[in-house]
């Protein structure tokens, strides 16, 4: 059974020419402009939302992994790369 989600009315102010262009695009697709807006918002959310990473998923910034003989990146092994000459 699908859950019906409420729709929220939103007011958006657009330049008239853009709005007319958008209405024509909707008419050409035999759809309502509101449908195109909802689709555009869905697409934007999908393309711009990134899942949050856990601390365990983070990797050190590096061009080639640990230096030869290094045990981890926290100690002196990566201080030059992470801090440059400031350390």
Written overview of the protein:
By secondary structure, the protein is mainly alpha-helical. The chain contains 3 helices and no strands. It has helices spanning 16-28, 33-48, 76-83. 0% of the residues are buried. The mean pLDDT is 78.
Radius of gyration: 25 Å
SSE-based structural type: mainly alpha
Q: State the end-to-end CA separation.
A: 60 Å
| Total beta strand runs | 0
Oligomeric category = single chain
Q: Residue ranges: pLDDT <50 for 5 or more in a row?
A: none
Mean pLDDT, rounded to whole units? 78
What is the percent of helical residues? Answer: 40-55%
Strand content: under 5%
Main beta-sheet annotation: none
Summarize the helix and strand pattern as letters: HHH
Helices, by number, come to 3
Described by the principal axes of the CA atoms, the overall outline is elongated
Descriptive labels:
mainly alpha, 87 residues, elongated, 3 helices
In short:
With 87 residues, this protein is mostly helical. The chain has helices spanning 16-28, 33-48, 76-83. The longest helix is centred in the middle third of the chain and has 16 residues, at 33-48.
List the helices and strands and how they pair.
Layout: H1 16-28, H2 33-48, H3 76-83
């Amino acid at each position: 059974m699908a859950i019906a989600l409420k729709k929220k009315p939103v007011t958006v102010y657009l330049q008239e020419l853009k709005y007319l262009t958008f209405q024509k695009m909707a008419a050409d697709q035999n759809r309502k402009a509101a449908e195109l807006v909802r689709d555009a918002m869905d697409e934007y959310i999908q393309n711009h939302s990134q899942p949050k990473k856990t601390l365990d998923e983070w990797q050190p910034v590096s061009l080639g992994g640990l230096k030869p003989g290094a045990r981890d990146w926290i100690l002196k092994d990566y201080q030059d790369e992470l801090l440059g000459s400031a350390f």
